[in-house]
Every structure is written in C-alpha cells, then in structure tokens.
Amino acid sequence: MTLPMKKTFALLALLPLSACISFGAKPPPSLLTLTAAQALPTGQTQSSATAATITIAVPSFAQALATTRVPVQSSETTLAYVPDAQWVELPGRLFARLMSDTIAAKTGRVVLTPAQSFSDPGARLSGELRAFGVDAIRSEAVVTFDASLIRTSGTVVEKRRFETRVPIAAIEAGAVGVGINQAANQVASDVADWVGR
C-alpha cells in the first residue's frame, strides 16, 4: 500500500470520531435579547453643544448573572436556570444598552459610554443589576436595578432602587424572554424619568 493511500485510510478512520467530539454545550434553538420600547429615530443627530450629556456604565452584577443563562429563584435559598433559554450576551451589557436607548429617547440627552466621556462626561449613571430573571414562587419576571447617579453639578451621589415585576404564563424561554424584556423596559423608563432632562 502506498503512503498516500495509508494517509487516506487514516483520515477516513478518524471521521466517525469527529462526530463524537463536542467542544461545548449544545446551543438553544434561539437566543434571547432585549428590544427598546423607546429609541431615537434612525439618522437623528445629537450634539453635546445643544444637549446635556450622560455617561452610562455597564452595571455590576452578582455571580448568578455572570452568565448568559436565565436564573430562576425557586426558593429563598435556591437558584436554577431556565432550560433552553440563553441571552445573546451578558445581561449587564444588554441592560446598559437598553437604558442608553431609553434615556436618549425620553430625555434628549446625549448618551456616552465611559470610553467616550473624557471631554464631557456630564451626569454619570452606574449601579448594580440585582435581579434579572424569574421568581418561580410568584411566576414573575423580575428586574431590579440599584442605580447611582452623579448629576452634572458636583460630586453628590444619589441612589435609588428600581424594580418591575411582570407575570409570566410559563417558565420557558419564550414567555420568560418577553416578560424580562417588558420588565427591563419599564425599569429603564423609570430610570430615565429619574435622570430627567
């Protein structure tokens, strides 16, 4: 048998093994994301020369939210995850982007990321995302955000907790995604009202 034929047989023998090798969990059929109920129209220009600015930081979050899986609080002391439900990226980033869209649309402020804020940071909004999942005891989607705001004038920090709960019909990916999206939009809207113009 020639050397090229030996290599061919060796490769053919490895093919069945390649179907058995897995480098991660099987992805769910679809991924969840957040959609802003209020956002600036496409093409609208904003300028810090004519509008106040605000810098929005990605919120900190607990270890239970340091994953793309959707947490379910099944009792006071136990946590599980919704089967086949997964965010497209970490919830903190999704929520920061949703707040940016909502605050820009509702207040007219120019929203900046920390990387864009060197020349004119304006007000500064940060905080901690305390809940972003499901309360199985009450069958509700829950979003809780502890906000910290430094307004344009001075270094005084204002803190406020925002929470919205939305009933869900079932603890499954579709219903949970819709419920959390609705709750997150309400929290973002409430934060925008607090920030003001």
Commentary on this structure:
The structure is a single chain. The protein has helices at 3-18, 91-107, 173-195, and strands spanning 53-56, 60-61, 69-73, 79-86, 110-112, 123-135, 140-150, 157-167. With 197 residues, it is an alpha/beta fold. It has a single domain (51-195), classed as ABC-type transport auxiliary lipoprotein component (Rossmann fold, 3-Layer(aba) Sandwich). Strands 1, 2, 3, 4, 5, 6, 7 and 8 form an eight-stranded mixed beta sheet that branches. Helix 2 crosses helix 3 (173-195). Residues 39-192 form the ABC-type transport auxiliary lipoprotein component domain.
What does the secondary structure layout of this molecule look like, with pairings?
Blueprint: H1 3-18, E1 53-56, E2 60-61, E3 69-73, E4 79-86, H2 91-107, E5 110-112, E6 123-135, E7 140-150, E8 157-167, H3 173-195
Parallel strand pairs: 1-5, 1-6, 2-6, 3-6
Antiparallel strand pairs: 3-4, 6-7, 7-8
Helix pairs in contact: 2-3
In short:
By secondary structure, this protein is of the alpha/beta class. 28% of the residues lie in helices and 29% in strands. The chain has 3 helices and 8 strands; from the N terminus they run αββββαββββα.
